[in-house]
Amino acid sequence: MSSLAKQGSKRYGRELSRYPHYIRKMFDQMQERAQIPAFRSEYRQVDENERYNNPRQWLVQPGDTVMITKGKFAGTLTKVVALQKETNRVFLEQSETKRVVVPKQFWQPGQTSHIIDYPLPQHPKDLKVVGTIVNDDGTEKKIAADKLVFKGEYWDEDYQKMMPYRRIKYNENIIIPWPRPDPVEDCIYSTDKNLVNERTFFPNSIIYSDSPIDLINSMRHPLMKRPYKWDKQYLTKSDIKRLVPPQPLLSDNKKAGILERQQIKENLPSKPLPETINLVGDKVSQFLNNITDPHLAKFINKNSPDYKDPKDLFIEKQKKLYDEKIKENQQLNKIKSFVEAKYKLKRTKNLHI
Amino acid sequence: MESINRVIGSVRLFSTSAINNARAYRNVVNRQLKKPVEYQIGDIRNNRLWVPKEVSKYPAYPYGESRIFKRSDRGLFGGQVITTGNKVSEMGNRTRRTWLPNVISKNLWSSALNRMIKMKLTARVLRTITKEGGLDNYVTKEKEARIKELGIFGWKLRHDILKAREMSNKPLPYKFEGEYKVYYEGTYNGEEIKLIRGKREILKKLFPYVKLNSPEGYSFSTFNIAHCKKSYEELVKECESLNVDLSEVKL
């Protein structure tokens, strides 16, 4: 097998996701070192599980007008050109650049010099999304969203997926719509959408499948009983039975002891007797009544179950007054509406006559 | 009275507590054990986890196996292990030497298991066995110090003895009627019946009748799992409904 095929293949190639993170980092560094300086990326590649994969994480999409908040170009309005998925960053129309020397075999059409300005991608957290709102007098105004929230979803025909509503935080009635993506043109090999959605298979029965009986044997060798190395195995009941040794047996003496202790526990009173409660209560009340220190007495009064905070009492009183007022107003309104209705009726009657 | 006093005087008084306090079982208590893992059905099974082929007969010894002097796990050594020290000559020269425990092999009677057990044990343990009044009493004592000095051999023996005692206390599942063991008495198709065979024989008789009324590929093992814990009464009722021939099994 050629080395190129090895690199691409999932079976023979080195799959980085199988290695622990610290070894993965070493491979990344090796790869970085092998590149010529022009193609070395300024920012580290993000792990696959940390990469952004939905518009809620990205906050922006290609075509959005944004305001840069960091660096040399802070304050300028530009457009998002593309997303760089490997680093969780976006390319902008106007942004900071890096001067790189490109070898001649990698020159783009129309390039005349070895030195070019390569745009540096920007992180979406250093951008503010810009939207437009229409004033009452018809003039348009641009606003930059400080923070965004996503509430609600809708089916977007252009993106062909559910997209969240992008709203400005604390002003959630203002929605900044997603930009329209570039239309994808069908090539010669692409299949028609309606043809894909057409249903071609109708099962004859729910119980019996149409597939041949020995289909499974044809897929895998029947004598191969060994489970596949990377398949997940789960503990069964018999596994646990064999893994866990039995509990040690108890001797007759120990069993008798446990029974005795249990009986003693059952015979013990679960609640204190009324006599003991009275005795303790008397003693405690006597002690509390003899307290002379006013601070201590105040503290103890605060901890009694009947104590109520004066603040709470005041709030309660206010609430009561408020409720009474509402009731009064309701009654007044009732009378008012009744009277109004009555007079209206009279007027209409008069008109008819 | 004098004669009695003479007899009592000759017998050594029982005072094991002082000796027990002196023994620290340093070798036993120092053993570091892994914490037992709590497994649950459906947990992901590690590829490196080794699952034994058979269910273990004995519970795990709380102090684990001996780290030094592995011999002590194969007999009753009372927590004794090889010890080291110096041989000091008259000139004060020190040369390293060791002391082994006084190990003897012996056939001892176990009344619970009803047989002789051949084992290796130290003379000290033999002395305590005579004091306790037999091997069974020595092995089944509940004191923590005793469990420390048992070792793996003693722990297994203890489990065997306790199990045998438990079994002997259980009532028999059958009654004797002459030569025959009668497992169940009841009615079968309106007639009195006495079953003289165990459940397994009855299940063997019942299985072909059940198999006729069940889908293809119904094995005895699956049938057995569903039926082995049923009582005789339930099994006889099922036999009655399928009209099973029990003439070979009844008295």
TrEMBL record, chain A:
Protein name per Swiss-Prot or TrEMBL: Mitochondrial 54S ribosomal protein YmL40
InterPro entries assigned to the protein according to its UniProt record, in alphabetical order: Rib_uL2_dom2, Ribosomal_uL24_KOW, Translation_prot_SH3-like_sf
Native species: Pichia kluyveri
Gene Ontology cellular component terms for the protein in this record: ribonucleoprotein complex; ribosome
Entry similarity comment: Belongs to the universal ribosomal protein uL24 family.
Coiled-coil boundaries: none
Any one Pfam family match given in the protein's UniProt record, by short name: Ribosomal_uL24m-like
GO MF assignments: RNA binding
Record key words, sorted: Ribonucleoprotein, Ribosomal protein
Domain of life: Eukaryota
Organismal lineage: Eukaryota, Fungi, Dikarya, Ascomycota, Saccharomycotina
UniProtKB/TrEMBL annotation, chain B:
Keywords, comma-separated and alphabetical: Ribonucleoprotein, Ribosomal protein
GO CC, one annotated term: mitochondrial large ribosomal subunit
GO MF entry, a single one: structural constituent of ribosome
Keyword match Phosphoprotein: no
Pfam family, one: Ribosomal_L28
Matches recorded under HAMAP family: Ribosomal_bL28
Protein function: Component of the mitochondrial ribosome (mitoribosome), a dedicated translation machinery responsible for the synthesis of mitochondrial genome-encoded proteins, including at least some of the essential transmembrane subunits of the mitochondrial respiratory chain. The mitoribosomes are attached to the mitochondrial inner membrane and translation products are cotranslationally integrated into the membrane.
PANTHER family referenced in this protein's UniProt entry, alphabetically: 39S RIBOSOMAL PROTEIN L28, MITOCHONDRIAL (PTHR13528), LARGE RIBOSOMAL SUBUNIT PROTEIN BL28M (PTHR13528:SF2)
Name of this protein: Large ribosomal subunit protein bL28m
